[in-house]
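Running low. Got one?
___
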Amino acid sequence: MKKIVEDEGIAGLYSGINGSLIGVASTNFAYFYWYSVVRSLYLSGQTIPKPPGTAAELSMGAAAGAIAQVFTIPVSVITTRQQTQPKADKRGLLDTGREVIHGEDGWPGLWRGLKASLVLVINPAITYGAYQRLLLGATSKALATIVTQPLIVAKVGLQSRPPPARQGKSFKSFLEVISYIIEHEGPLALFKGLAPQITKGILVQGLLMMTKERMEILFIVVFSYLRRLRQTKLQQVANAATARAKEVLPVIKK
């Protein structure tokens, strides 16, 4: 943090915040949406309804996370590229997206690191599964982050510009990134950034789990109100049409 503040000022700590906000919102929305879909399909297929076990919860969470990643990883790629660019090369969200598209990978570059992201779905799967079973959202997020941190580091390496030592040659797989890091920085470098990642995860996950049920209730209330409002308007239209018909009918009979 000191180095970032020295080089870029306080604003550097918020580099790529627009993409991060879009990414967090879209990823969490997609994850919980597809989790609800997968869970509903699982429960509808049971002859005798019963709460899913831990293995089923983790499997459903992993499936939902994998589907969500396919739709949301382009935002992650652009945001990561923004946050790892030197100050002189900083660009906006759209300009960074164009840079990725015009790179050596073309449009598929927006899905760079997808394989690592698909493996990383065990992170939210463990978190949400543990929350459902043990009500330990923040703690489970910290444990999941420790387990998956090497893959998180590898994914960032895939989505960032290659280091100067590679002379512009991009990494082709997350295993190649891991091998490079171990060779040049040692195995412990796979866990660099672990403390900020855990801190962020605990804060985000804690707030998310605290507000999830309240937001679900709020959406239900809002949708119920909108449906009731629509029904009221339809009823008013129907009543007006009926009254108009009653006025016209005597004229026709005459």
